[in-house]
## 1
Amino acid sequence: MQERSFLSKWTNVKKENLKYGWQKAKKMKVCYLFLAPYAILFFTFIILPIITSIFYSFTYYNILEPPRFVAFKNYIDLILQDEVFLTSVKNTFVIAVITGPVGYILSFLFAWFINELPKWLRAVAVVVFYAPSVAGTAYTIFSIIFRGDAYGYINSFLLEFGLIDAPILWFSNPAYIMPVLIVVILWMSMGTGFLSFVAGFQGIDNSMYEAGYVDGVRSRWQELYHITLPSMKPMLLFGAVMSITSAFNVCDVPRALAGYPSTDYAARTVVTHLFDYGFSRFEMGYASAIATLLFLVMILCKKAISNLLAKVGT
Amino acid sequence: MSEVRSTGSMTGLDSKKYNGEIIVTETDVRFVSKKKDGNVEFPIHQITGLAQVRHGGMSSTVTCTIKGDVKYTFYLSKGMRVYKQIDDHWDNRPVVKKTRADELKRLAELRGERIQKVKKHKVRRRHPNRSIGGDIGVYILLAIVACLMAFPLVFAIGSSLKPLDELFRFPPTVFAQHPTTDNFSDLFVTMGQSYVPFSRYLTNTVFITFVGTFGHLIIASMAAFVLAKYDFPGGRLFFGVVTTALMFSGYVTGIPNYVIMSNLGMIDTYWALLLPAFAAPIGLFMMKQFMEGLPTALIEAAHIDGAGEFRIFWHIVMPNVKPAWLTVIIFSVQSLWNTSASTVIYSDEKKTLVYALQQIQAGGIARTGQAAAVTVIVMSVPILIFIFSQSRILETMASSGIKD
């Protein structure tokens, strides 16, 4: 009955809606029972961290002492004083802008090309393209391929053809770190989104293409734009979400390949910066400010992309 | 050919619609409408039109006489349309089943057109909009890129099989000339001498992967089931939040998570790895999208039979979404198998395989061969799982899209 007195404060419509909702919720109790285990874990380990992260971002917190409120100091320091952060933003931005869209478009294109193959070959191709991202830490092999001495595969190749005189220190020379990292990240970019695309292509009804042919579609590119893209919108959005996630959360690859910290912070990304402050210096408040900014940017990116996708093929 | 029967509906002269069966013999057409108070029979002169006539074959011709002098032919074709046409020589023609091609040929003959033979393509092609040049270009491009994609993995396998002298040969080769498994056995020797034996790391990782994946599969499927099949207040909102949460990686939530874990007293226990893995949004997302494709009638039928929600979930829904299991499993295995757990696990004997890999790689140039061997061991498991479950996974991924 307490619910009733609470509800009576609302306007009639609201009241009716809520009453209806409440009754419905009561009737479907079992649904909440099913949802509960997941919802509790999800709330505790995904939603709560995000909320606490926003909260801590306004405090000074080092785990040992209780958090102390400092208002926007973390954000101001981050943007105005922390030069390493600006380097990391620049690096993340370069990585995200190159590997995000390029990886996304490449995985779409290759999924499309693979779709044209005969069935058995398609299965092989999907494995070959998807293997790098499913293999997880296999990228560490690049530390042998791009090794800094003459025994490194790339160095010896270049030495043999006389393109360079001395072996290049790929992961120590700031000039080469980023390009090499981008190559490695692109190598791994055929991920979940790619799988979703491959499956999406298979799901399109062939009669759509036949109808398109009758209506005057004459090349594979026209077909792509007018028939394929509009029917794949949900997968495109899913792929975009996946590619934003991986583009902004680059962390393991630079840490494992370029060292941590890397020479001149040349391979520092926002997430490695966050890691540094969070787990090496235990400045949780400061790290949380970085995390909060990252959340914001990712959510804005997703919004922008879903708006953009709404216009495709119309 | 004495009698042709076909179910359908027709309009009588009183412009009422009747459902029933049309029975055609060579001399007569009857339409029998089944009603509660017995069958009602209509002779042919009352029939003004036939609609939605269903028939088993491709198409059939029904010939009949109406009012003694006008001859009508009813073509019952696959398109469920009925054509009427006067045909003078109807009684000389046998009533035969016709295919669409026969029909087109006959019509062309009637119009006095020459019958065109349909050209056969020399190469059977799936798509009309493809040029051969373009196809070849695509194949070549795919082949080149596939080689580039596969090269590092092949190189890793090659390196792990190389003896020490070949690892530092100039110029280096991709494949070993004298392949050995020394690196793998050395690995066990090196790790056997260390404080924590290698097998311990392997067991830890297998344990985490197995328990984490299993728990995630059950918990996420339960939630996905009600989200997909029941409309209850808050359900849609919850799913929207999960969709957004797809973007938050473990690193970003890592710091507050650490604080939460330490408050719950779970630092340095496997719970710190397992519980967040149970709540991974991607598994719920995939499961829910796939379960939406399950026919609701299946669940309603079980309801009518008196099955409770849990029985429905366990005996009806779960066996029907097996392809989605594999997808959830591959994503979960992929993240758990590759976890280094460096932030929440401190004790060396609880660390994972990837952590061991990182330690070996930190060992520098002398450990190059062993590092390659560990890489091969670590990467082979998820890749093998993917190879064997690929077709099922793709089946699930087809429903993966995010609808606005």
## 2
Amino acid sequence: MFRNQYDTDVTTFSPQGRLHQIEYAQEAVKQGSAVVGVRNKNYAVLATLKRTTSDLASTQKKLFKIDDHVGMAIAGLTADARLLSKYMRTECLNYKYVYECAMPLSRLVLRVADKHQIATQRVSKRPFGVGLLIIGYDQQGPHLYETSPSGEYWEYQAMSIGARAQSARTYLEKVFETLNSCSLDQLCRHAILALRETVAALKDIDLSTKNCALAIVGEDLDFTIYEDEDVLPYLDVIETGSSQPMDGQSST
Amino acid sequence: MQLVVDPVRHTTSPLVTGGSVIGIKCSDGVVIAADTLASYGSLARFQNFSRLLKVTDSCLLGGGGEISDFQEIQRLLENLTTQDFCFNDEHKKSPRSLHQYLGRVLYAQRSRLNPFWNSLIVGGYVQSQSFLGMVDLYGTTFESEVLASGFGVLLGLPLLRKAYRPDLTVQEGIKIVEEVYRVLFYRDARSINRIQVATATVDGVTISEPYSLETKWDFKGFVNPRSTYDESTW
Amino acid sequence: MWKESSVVATMASLQRPDFMPYQNNGGTVVAIGGEDYCIVSATTRLGLGFAIPTRNVCRYSILNNRVVLATAGMFADTATLHKVIKARVKIYEEQQDKPFGLHSAAQLLSNTLYYRRFFPYYTFNVLGGLDEDGQGFVYGFDAIGSGEKVKVVCNGTGQALIQPILDNQVEKKQQYENKQITKLSLQEAVDLIKDVFTSAGERDIYTGDAIDICIITKEKGVLVETFQLKQD
């Protein structure tokens, strides 16, 4: 086993200037099943791949509703994500209690990123082993954010994290410029096709109503999760569509 | 050994107070106004005190009641808007949010039995929508087309309600508000004929310099009142 | 002199002795539970002494598509109570992933009110909605959380004027001759509510301007209509 002098606690830098515990936590994100997020001018969409530990078990929860206007998909430790979702729900609720309006996404993401950061600078803590794709709709329109165990966060047009997310990102890199002019249907289609890329190399698995879930939020639509039979209409693209990027003009 | 501590003491009644604030919603903005008097009991103590504030580029606040409490509220709002600025994310509090926030603050204070002794009127204009809301020392919050506080509730509100139309312009609103203040000056002993008028419109918020209202005192009954019975003042 | 007195007991009374933390803004709320519907209604006038600071406030909250809460009394307390209840309902629905039931809402409301037993919310609540079977029920509460499950209730400043009429007309109590108990249809119940508020508005200065009527049915969820009353 590979040994390292500088990874026994999170607060010690290696001579190369790295914090190994944080990097290990980011590995935990890569171990989690893939999630994809995309947005256009009016909507943001998440697509997730649900895994089970065995045939006897139910699937792990990947999508969390935070407030009417916010939700997230997670990759990594579900238990850590539950804690973060509770925190975010409380933040949204408190904001609404005081200001009687929905919490702006940038403020919420900043707070949850700060929570990640605290766990990287204290001896008594460990970093969160989970990456979040947060989508939401506020006064400035739809948003898609990623947070990392390091406490960093970024806003995206399209992003994927989790196992084999690189292949989904490759797909998204080809189409992201067309997303803003997409219809909602086309947006969902891109999300599903990007997610499919993460399982394309695997022989024994394909997207189905059992392992795929979708979530949408937008200007006239509260955060809504589609799973089981509700996700079926969105999976049709797999039968008919190719995995080649679309030109944004074709419709489902 | 001292076994007991002195009880907590607060100011038990307002000391330096402002009078009525009034507001009226218009189709192209909102008008709120206040006179410039801060009384010390029945003494007209500070005669050029501004009770209107610009909170954000689209939001105004007018306050009556205890002046020191009003200044504390001004500091709270400055903190809030400064924090918004520091986030650097272009999100600003809407007039409605600020109104709700003040409602929570004043309710919390009243629940500690140490109220901010004020009536506040919040006015704003965002995305072609006028906003006009009120908060009192109990934390009561409500919105309305016309609002008044203090003596203005009794003498001003009926006039405002009569004058109100949904298609009022800000210019008409200002005229109405001046007329109401004239009436208030004649009858409210804690008022002065020097007012400020503030507007929130698509061009942002403006607060006028204080100016005097013309008043007329040469009514026969004013000039030479003989007795309450044979010569009414009005 | 103060040092000789019992401190804790007197502290509250020494703070702002001439400030009373309560205000009566009036208002009347009525709820009727039918076989397959429920109606919850509330006046919109905000009264204060002999003045009417505004004619249009909202005294009800739609907790979900089966439960509505309406409150008379002090308006600042009303707004706060509704915020608290709505937040608690939201937490429940997010965590449990199912709608908050009528009877659970009644228990929550009762506990929330009693939690402030010694500094009460000055509010008089009615809660109405459909139970698991789709049957309409209503609850009436006092300011500190005592309440009961009934078929019809009125709370607030118009209570003494309206409740006896509702007892007579909805529950067919105190009838001169025993009449056949016929259940009110939804339309009859809505009409009755409009009548009793119109009448109460003639005698109670805190009842007037308008009422919001929330109609709860299994098929349509909560529909809200406004009915104008006199402004005098």
